[in-house]
Amino acid sequence: MTPHESGLPRGTVYGTLLNFQREWSLWAPRMDQDPYKAPPKAPVLYVKTANTFNASSELVLQDGVTEVEVGASLGLVMGEGGQPVALQLLNDWSVPHASYYRPPVKFRCRDGYLGLGGTRPWAQDVVDRLIITVQINGAQVQTVNLSALVRPVAQLLADVGEFMTLQAGDMLMLGTDCLPDGTRPRARAGDTVQLSATGFAPCVQQLVSGGAA
Amino acid sequence: MKHARIAWSGAIQQAIESNGQLLITQGPHAGSRVGFDEVVWLPPLAPVPQARTVIALGLNYADHAKELAFKAPEEPLAFMKGEASLIGHMAYTKRPADVAYMHYECELAIVIGRTARRVKKADAYDFIAGYTVANDYAIRDYLENWYRPNLRVKNRDTCTPIGPWLVDAADVPNPMALRLQTTVNGKVTQSGSTSDMIFDVPTLIEYFSGFMTLNPGDLILTGTPDGIVDCQPGDVIVTEIEGIGALTNTIVKA
Predict the structure, then answer these.
(1) Are A105 and B55 in contact (CB < 8 Å)?
(2) What DSSP designation does A157 have?
(3) Domain map of chain B by residue range?
């Protein structure tokens, strides 16, 4: 089986924070303030652990969570030698959090919080031209333009590779954009969220309430 | 029993400690005995079908929290690491040329034994396969206040030695009363006890399994006590936990 034919990541999945120009610009005036004290120099990364991998048609809201943020993203599926071999459409779900100071484990690593959409073979021009459309219950709420990255693919791979080697099967997400006001689309139990992008099978998940507070 | 995963005779072998030697337990060499210095030591962890979850704790000893000028956290301060940062016993860790402060962190590592979700403290030990020693190196020059501690500090290639042994949980009757010690070139620089953890092992398992599923083979590195010092190329660092093992690592220039 080729990497990710099953849709499930084979390796470790890394996310990238603040990699869209819009969100960076909105944050820039606050970056020198406490507790951040300075803009980030290295890419700000986080791990989406294996319990988040979710190829199903549902995301179960549980353990007290009633609302989640949609994180339309594109993942670079890595091959041998540190080069991408495929792209995957992803919903990097998170619990809304206003502070980027501490690692986001309880916001981003909950069960099912990485929605897995379709894949395509790697091509730089696919990334450059890609627009991801976000719909909630059929209404378009966001368009994400992958040409507006702070660190485009080559620079992100170089800056990450400075301190860690991405292994074959690992995935590096290029980031999630915010809305013009700095927020992200939010969804609750009963909502159906669809991410669509040309050439990719869409990522569609319905939010259901799972009890167990 | 103390389990190891080693490379020997051109292949990866499973072994146990037996009278100061490694006894290979499976495959064509089962029954063979080899010396500790005849093998390449790998992280003592069986492969897992999906990415291994590696949770690490910051500031989980009151004295270390004080050393780093923070008040003790009200809930566990956790960050995630990728499995690719793990290396075995007797391996080499790279120190970049331009840094001023790179330090070891001797940590008790929990290896999960069965799927854990919403586990209560009282039942937590039932979900542990065993324990090993981790050295969770940090390079403080690279610390930034964005998702801190950030991955450039804590998820570097070669910067998480682990091993040498996975010790069965049944052989560790009280993991909350183990002496920890680190030596740099034979001189003791760090000493403490797992009894000083802010959030103990059962509390950590209850906390994490309260919002995420832990799978067999997943790791929790439980934090380090006071006594961190800078390490230079050529330094030999031994992080040791009573009854679990002594993990040796050598710093080299990047």
Answers:
(1) yes
(2) H
(3) 1-42, 46-253
Mean pLDDT (chain A, rounded): 95
Domain B46-253 has CATH 3.90.850.10: yes
Q: Per-residue confidence at B74, pLDDT binned at 50, 70, 90?
A: confident
pLDDT above 60 for A85: yes
Structure tokens at B102: 């790179």
Short-list A45, A29, A20, CA closest to A179: A20
User: How far is Cα B160 from Cα B136, in angstroms, rounded to an integer?
Assistant: 5
Q: Is the pLDDT of residue A6 over 70?
A: no
pTM (2 d.p.): 0.96
Of A13, A102, A212, the CB nearest to B118: A212
Q: Which two tokens stand for residue B179?
A: 């002496």
Q: Domains of chain A, with CATH numbers?
A: 13-209 (3.90.850.10)
Write the CB contacts of B76 (distance below 8 Å, at least 6 apart in sequence): B57, B60, B199, B203, B204, B207, B208
Name the residue among B80, B83, B85 with its Cβ closest to that of A109: B80
